[in-house]
Amino acid sequence: MDMHNLIHMANQIGSFYEAMPDQEEALLGISGHLHNFWEPRMRKQLLEYVDAEAGKELKPIVLSAIRAHRNQLSPRP
Amino acid sequence: MFEQLNEKDFGTPKRNSEQEVTLEIDGMHVTVAAGTSIMRAAAESGVNIPKLCATDSLEPFGSCRLCLVEIEGRKGYPASCTTPAETGMKVRTQSPKLQSLRKGVMELYLSDHPLDCLTCAANGNCELQDMAGVTGLREVRYGYDGENHLHSKKDESNPYFTYDPSKCIVCNRCVRACEETQGTFALTISGRGFDSRVSAGQDQPFMESECVSCGACVQACPTATLQEKSVIAIGQAEHSIETTCAYCGVGCGFNAEMKGNQVVRMVPSKNGRANEGHSCVKGRFAWGYATHQDRILKPMIRGKFTDPWREVSWAEALDYAASEFKRIQNKYGRDSIGGIVSSRCTNEEGYLVQKLVRTAFGNNNVDTCARVCHSPTGYGLKQTLGESAGTQTFKSVEHSDVILVIGANPTDAHPVFASRMKKRLRAGARLIVIDPRKTELVSSPHIKAAFHLPLKPGTNVAMLSALAHVIVTEGLLANDFIASRCEDTAFRAWRDFVALPENSPEAMQDITGVSAELVRGAARLYATGGNAAIYYGLGVTEHAQGSTAVMGIANLAMATGNIGREGVGVNPLRGQNNVQGSCDIGSFPHELPGYRHVSDSTTRHLFEQAWGVEIQAEPGLRIPNMFDAALDGSFKGMYCQGEDLVQSDPNTQHVTAALAAMECIVVQDIFMNETAMYAHVFLPGSSFLEKDGTFTNAERRISRVRKVMPPKAGYADWEVTIQLAQRLGYEMNYQHPSEIMDEIARLTPTFHGVSYQKIDALGSIQWPCNDDAPEGTPTMHVDEFVRGKGRFIITKYVATDEKITRKFPLILTTGRILSQYNVGVQTRRTENVQWHEQDLLEIHPHDAEERGIQDGGWVSIQSRAGETVLRAKVSERMQPGVVYTTFHFPESGANVITTENSDWATNCPEYKVTAVQVMPVSEPSAWQKTHTRFSKAQQALLAQAKLV
Ligand code: SF4
Ligand code: SF4
Ligand code: SF4
Ligand code: FES
Questions:
Q1: pLDDT of residue B193
Q2: Which residue from B26, B56, B480, B646 lies 20 to 30 Å from B222 (Cα-Cα)?
Q3: According to CATH, what is the number of the domain B2-135?
Q4: Contact criterion met (CB < 8 Å) for A15 and B628
Q5: What was the ipTM of the complex prediction?
Q6: Whole-number Cα distances in Å, B295 to B288, B642, B712
Q7: pTM to 2 decimal places
């Protein structure tokens, strides 16, 4: 899928959770949202992007969330 | 359910009082609520006092003097409609004297009334005729030689009803209906004495007056003076069936008055709890589309969307669809196909489509058109309050002291609710409107908003934070409510956040464009003005921060304790008739029925056992994701029931490219819509008149839809889904939609108590309906929130990426108007086009002048997504810098301009904010020319099918 669009969507999610005072909660919020609402092929592509290009266009908070909760985000086989 | 053709008329409205009075009427003891008229008290005990100017939907007026009675110990003959019943009264409704007085009244009426009863359209349904009979009038002594109105000219300007002044008895019912019921104030009695006549506007034809054709006056008229043209053409109905309007989320109850299988007229039902006997022009009059000649009644197939259609049998069409879906899954994998649930079809039909996707397709790729309107409501309210639904009944507005309307234009989009709201506003409730446009509500007859905050599009969240800031920093919080009902930590974090100086109205002023003083005033009124209710619409949800704004609204309600009783609450005004229902029954790709996530193994196992299949634990694709996946080649097939993706989804060219890339699109619809032009299989749909089922309105009210005629193409939509599932190897056994509802009820805790039998008994049911609430739940979150404690959520304003630039210096926002419905597939095929023949671009005089744009001239509207051309309407309703259009006609291409920018949480498109440039032009846009060519070509391919 259009990577640019996926990055944009992930960063929008990041912007929402950025306002939370508790960083832990914010990271969980982001990964939880991706897990609950993103279809596996979208998550797979996002993870590939993080691996291949170090997620360079992702907001730091999104990248941290993905790194912290990677297991949760990997599509089930 | 067959209903009496005419519902009983008690003469005056019901009074709600805890106090009772007992009186004697014709020797009978009668007990009624204090304030009840003698007329109603009599009617409730079976005594019908003659009447003409009284009807139970309107306050009594006391003009005809037909309802006179005798009261022991009182002089004269008081009118029973205007005299309240009192304890100890002894009333006589019949006596020789009364009879002679009434006869005299009737005689006067009839001396100026044509006696053409036998050929009159109201024959058999005329109160004047009935009263002549009741009073025993046998002759009219005055004759027609004197002055009379028998030759007055008929006004036939309205496409749906006529006004024949010669039959008018000047009872004033129509005038009062227009004022009290509808709130438009279009009618007056002009002239005095003998010259007095009903007149629309300034003595204008109805169509030229401010009349909105709701029909309330027609319904109230006791004679044939105001009469439906359909009744004039067809004659009076012979039976009537109760059903529910299939247009908007108000969900008005109607009696379909029938002659055999033909609809004679639709009359709003007094038993309809959403509408209490009122309706709008769409529900009452615009049902002609259901039998329009454009209906496609034979299944059709074709190999490519550029091939001619071929009419085939149902069996062949369904076999072909099933074999294509199987072929695609074999080639591209299980997840390469999906389905779309319609928010216009019934709950039962929606349930079957999502069940088909989850069982026969074996994936979760199911979504619904609610995606593009109220998905943020579901998300935002679930996060904060615990349930994805509005909190009140419509009736609750009668108990509101302050009404805050944000991002909604109920007068046009939810007309019957607007009428109910206006009634309350005229009675003294105060109004706050937050909307970029000066909507009709801001200042309408006898209503003036206490505050109108004309914010810039895309700044709702900034505005909600500023309102919250005032409430927190000025000590207006409902501390006790918060302490007992809400999560403490979350509340503190939210309170500290909104109290930050950057959230003050002064700091937000530049962002929202609204003066801090106005915002402070509105916040104070909302927090301290008594029962305060928030009503919101797509102007809240269809934004990049749509879900955030919904949470912001819930925060405000919790912060001020305005939740959990009548008169308050958070009320989403839903667009389509069954948006609420389609969401409830599991049509989102991440949720099973009852809003339970697919990763929740307990719920999944429940459904797996019931359905006998394994259900995927991962969410499926949402509609916009489906398009993206189609373009990257991983999504190839779609079963689309009752939804026009091409016209309703943003960035049309992106959508059509995606559809063109797919291998099998099955469209089930009543018309060849824009999406069907890209389809490979067309399955004829059935209208709401042709099937049984239920719709769930914006108040969570489940109402019955009843079949009044057989399906024109042979099957109701639910029957087609069953057959498709069977061909895909999955058996569904239902003989009637009631059995589908039984299954939903069995598997969904909030529906456990719902059944057709119970709906029939109660009239309608607001879910949750289960052991805890056997008759349903009018008000939610009464003692505790559905999630336990209410959760405040921090809602930081993030400016949308759709920003104005030098190239695109204006903001385009979109909306709808009263006479047309959404993409207009239905209403465009009715006389409603007389009110709205085309979509226009509204632009402020300043912006128009700067660009040399004339009112009525052609203008191009260009965004980064595309360009289209419309006629301009120069209007002070707009603020400078903002332009507005509706999206009812495909050739307008409003969605050619909207972008794929969407809500962060739900991907609900940001229809309400698009940066554009507007310029005068002389010809249609390139897209429009291509569209015209393509539509013509598709029409030709369709015509070939008919020839085969
Ligand atoms: S149709 Fe409705 S708006 Fe028009 S005059 Fe009658 S009551 Fe008023
Ligand atoms: S038009 Fe009908 S309702 Fe209105 S005043 Fe005349 S008779 Fe009464
Ligand atoms: S308000 Fe809505 S539900 Fe009621 S009649 Fe009009 S369109 Fe139908
Ligand atoms: S019905 Fe009472 S005065 Fe007309």
A1: 72
A2: B26
A3: 3.10.20.740
A4: no
A5: 0.93
A6: 11, 13, 9
A7: 0.92
Q: How many CB atoms lie within 10 A of CB B488?
A: 11
Pairwise CA distance, residues B167 & B154, whole Å? 10
- DSSP summary character for residue B126: -
Structure tokens at B43: 């009617």
> CA-CA distance, B870 to B852, in Å (whole number)?
15
Chain centroid, CA B161 distance in Å:
22
Provide the residue count of chain B.
948
Reported as a single tens digit per residue, the pLDDT across B360-395 is 999 999 999 877 777 888 889 999 998 888 899 999
Q: Are B677 and B646 in contact (CB under 8 A)?
A: yes
Among B589, B794, B801, select the one facing A39 at the smallest CB separation: B589
Is residue B54 within 8 A of residue B11, CB to CB? The reply is yes
Query: Do the chains contact at A2 and B907, CB–CB below 8 Å?
Result: no
Q: Pick one of 1.10.472.80, 3.40.50.2300, 2.40.40.20, 3.20.20.140 as the CATH number of B810-934.
A: 2.40.40.20
State the nearest Cα–Cα gap between B620 and chain A, in angstroms: 5
Compute the radius of gyration of chain A from its Cα atoms.
11
Could you say which DSSP state residue B790 is in?
B
Q: What are phi and psi of B664, to 5 degrees?
A: -145, 110
Cite the residue boundaries of each domain of chain B with CATH code 3.40.228.10.
375-437+452-572
Amino acid at B362: G
pLDDT band at B4 (very low <50, low <70, confident <90, very high): low
User: What class does CATH assign to B300-373+579-747?
Assistant: alpha beta
User: Is 60 exceeded by the pLDDT of residue B705?
Assistant: yes
CA separation for the pair B27, B94 (Å, rounded):
12
DSSP B790-807: B----------S----SS
In eight-state DSSP terms, residue B80 is: T
Please check the confidence at residue B823 and state whether its pLDDT lies above 60.
no
- Please, where in chain B does CATH 3.40.50.740 lie? 300-373+579-747
Per-residue model confidence (pLDDT) at position B108: 85
How far is B689 from B708, CA to CA, in rounded Å? 5
pLDDT digits (tens, 9 = 90+) for B749-789: 999 999 999 999 999 999 999 999 999 999 989 888 888 89
Picking from B389-403, B631-645, B725-739, B920-934, which range would have the lowest pLDDT averaged per residue?
A: B920-934
Chain A neighbors of B545, CB-CB under 8 A: 16
> CA–CA separation, B256 vs B262, rounded Å?
10
Ligand 3 atom closest to residue B244's alpha carbon, by position in its atom list: 3
Yes or no: say if B908 and B902 are a contact pair by the CB < 8 Å rule. Answer: yes
Q: Which residue in A8, A12, A76 is closest to B617 by CB distance? A: A76
Whole-angstrom Cα distance, residue B916 to residue B562? 39
Q: Is the pLDDT of residue B147 over 80?
A: no
Q: State which H helix or E strand residue B694 sits in.
A: strand B693-696
Chain A (9-38) residues lying within 8 Å, Cβ to Cβ, of chain B: 9, 12-13, 15-16, 18-22, 33, 35-38
Residues 6 or more apart whose CB falls under 8 angstroms from that of B163 comprise: B154, B155, B156, B198, B200, B206, B225, B226
Q: Where are the alpha helices (DSSP H) in chain A?
A: 3-18, 23-37, 40-53, 60-68, 70-73
Domain at B375-437+452-572: CATH code: 3.40.228.10
B619, B629, B907: residue with CB nearest A36:
B619
pLDDT bin (cut points 50, 70, 90) of residue B824 is low
At B904, give phi and psi (nearest 5°).
-60, -35
State yes or no: pLDDT of B146 exceeds 70. no
> Could you read off the pLDDT of B482-537 as tens digits, one per residue?
999 999 999 999 999 999 999 999 999 999 999 999 999 999 999 999 999 999 99
Contact A41 B335 (CB under 8 A): yes
| Contacts for B327 with CB less than 8 Å, ≥ 6 apart | none
